[in-house]
């Protein structure tokens, strides 16, 4: 009779034999098996990054390629470089003003305006130009004859001062606010004196009037001076009546505008307000005169003259002209 203990021992023995047989079979099968799922690549293939973007209506997948990215970066840099080159402002080519000697002086407001100078309130227009040096201008000025006119010279004296002698005259008058009715009222006084002086002109005498603040306004616009005819002399009052006193002051610009006409004498009328001319500017103006143009300074003020060695007196002295002070309190 087989007991329970004997049956249990046989079951364990059979189970052990079966498990050992299964392990042997599995080992033989594994040794003979060749994997076919993955193979070694013959060449290296690029690895990409997948960038997925999803919008409300579509879902797109883009592949990031490093070589494409580098090419795009280089293209972008070239495009930016071209854009920078394209947007660089070109140098302004300025017009060549056909006026000998001072035609290319660096003073934008010294260029004559294009319209009728007798139009009230009209201002000159122009662009700054790059021109010859002061020495070149002076040399050209000195070569010019003192006057191309024939006949006797004329004399001009304002406010009882020493007369200027010549055939061609330019009157440069400051029209800034301090010279008007709310200031010294010097414009009215200058109008009276200039009109009276022009009445004595002969047919062979020429003139111009330039009223300036930050820009000039011309009585006779263009390259030529006005002829001394009854009609032109009569229009002087119309010119002054159309002037309003306002704005700042640019003395150098006003004088350079007058020098463009190469006159024998310039009358420079102002209260001498700031900004005054420094020594370098005065020296340059002397060179521009070229030894043929004299500048006569007429300064307006209230009360006695405070500074007898001011820029107006120096300018007159260095150009061979005369300086005169007018006390408007006595007018």
Q: Which fold name is given in CATH as the topology of the domain at 123-143 and 166-330?
A: Rossmann fold
CATH superfamily of the domain at 123-143 and 166-330: von Willebrand factor, type A domain
Q: Strand portion, in percent?
A: 15-25%
Structural class per helix/strand content? alpha/beta
Q: Could you state the order of secondary-structure elements as H and E? A: HEEHHEEEHEEEHHEHEHE
In DSSP terms (H or I, runs of 4 or more residues), the helix count works out at 8
Overall form? rod-shaped
Mean of pLDDT: 75
Estimated helix fraction: 25-40%
Radius of gyration: 47 Å
Distance between the ends: 164 Å
Task: Identify the quaternary structure here.
Answer: single chain
Largest sheet: 7 strands, mixed
Number of strands: 11
Poorly predicted runs of 5 or more residues: 38-43, 47-66, 81-88, 91-129
CATH-level-2 architecture of the domain at 123-143 and 166-330? 3-Layer(aba) Sandwich
What is the level 1 CATH name of the domain at 123-143 and 166-330? Answer: Alpha Beta
């Amino acid at each position: 009779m087989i007991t329970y203990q004997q049956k249990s021992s046989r079951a364990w023995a059979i189970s052990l034999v079966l498990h050992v047989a299964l392990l042997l079979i599995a080992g033989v099968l594994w040794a003979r098996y060749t994997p076919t799922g993955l193979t070694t690549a013959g060449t290296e293939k690029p690895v990409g990054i997948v960038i997925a973007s999803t919008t409300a209506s579509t879902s797109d997948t883009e592949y990031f390629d490093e070589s494409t990215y580098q090419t795009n970066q280089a293209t972008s840099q070239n495009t930016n470089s071209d854009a920078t080159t394209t947007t660089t402002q070109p140098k302004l080519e300025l017009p060549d003003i056909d006026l000998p000697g001072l035609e290319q002086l660096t003073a934008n407001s010294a260029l004559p305006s294009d319209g009728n100078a007798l139009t009230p309130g009209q201002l000159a227009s122009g662009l700054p130009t790059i021109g010859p040096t002061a020495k070149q201008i002076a040399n050209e000025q000195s070569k010019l004859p003192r006057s191309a006119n024939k006949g006797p010279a004329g004399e001009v004296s304002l406010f009882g001062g020493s007369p200027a002698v010549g055939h061609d005259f330019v009157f440069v008058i400051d029209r800034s606010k301090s010279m008007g009715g709310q200031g010294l009222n010097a414009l009215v006084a200058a109008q009276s004196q200039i009109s009276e002086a022009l009445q004595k002109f002969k047919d062979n005498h020429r003139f111009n009037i330039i009223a300036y603040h930050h820009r000039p306004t011309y009585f006779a616009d263009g390259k030529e001076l006005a002829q001394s005819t009854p009609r032109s002399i009569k229009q002087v009052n119309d010119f002054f009546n159309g002037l309003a006193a306002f704005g700042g002051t640019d003395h150098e610009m006003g004088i350079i505008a007058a020098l463009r006409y190469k006159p024998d004498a310039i009358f420079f009328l102002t209260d001498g307000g700031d900004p005054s001319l420094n020594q370098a500017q005065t020296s340059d103006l002397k060179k521009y005169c070229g030894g043929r143009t004299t500048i006569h300074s007429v300064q307006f003020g209230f009360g006695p003259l405070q500074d007898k060695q001011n820029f107006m007196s120096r300018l007159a002295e260095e150009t061979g002209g005369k300086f005169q002070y007018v006390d408007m309190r006595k007018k």
